[in-house]
Amino acid sequence: MSKSTISTFELFQMFPDQESARVYFEARRWPDAKVVGVEHATSADWHAVKAAHVALRDYLSARIANAGKCPASLREPSDA
Predict the structure, then answer these.
(1) Which residues have a Cβ under 8 Å from the Cβ of 45 and sit 6 or more positions away?
(2) What is the pLDDT of residue 13?
(3) What is the pLDDT of residue 80?
């Protein structure tokens, strides 16, 4: 069984920079993923990624903008 918690020191030893953390978590999430370099990406790939990014940005913007307009009965209870 794996250890469930680690210290901050251990975390920074495992992931000294953002790139090492990204590589680790991508490998855990998508173990059989084929890595395609930028030089192999097509124009269609870039357009699909941009469209997904814009859709996510718009969705999150709407959620944030409407967060305060939700009826109190539907809001999650706060910790305060």
Answers:
(1) 36
(2) 92
(3) 46
CA–CA dist 37, 8 (Å, integer): 32
Q: Which amino acid is at 57?
A: R
Q: What is the DSSP letter of 3?
A: -
SS3 content of the chain, % helix, strand, coil (to 5): 65, 0, 35
pTM for the whole thing?
A: 0.38
Single-letter residue type at 36: V
Q: Chain-wide mean pLDDT for the chain?
A: 74
**Alpha helix locations (H) across 15-77?**
18-29, 43-66
Report the distance separating Cα 56 and Cα 50, nearest Å: 10
What does the buried/exposed string (b/e) look like for 31-62 if buried means 16 or more CB atoms within 10 Å of the residue's CB?
eeeeeeeeeeeeeeeeeeeeeeeeeeeeeeee
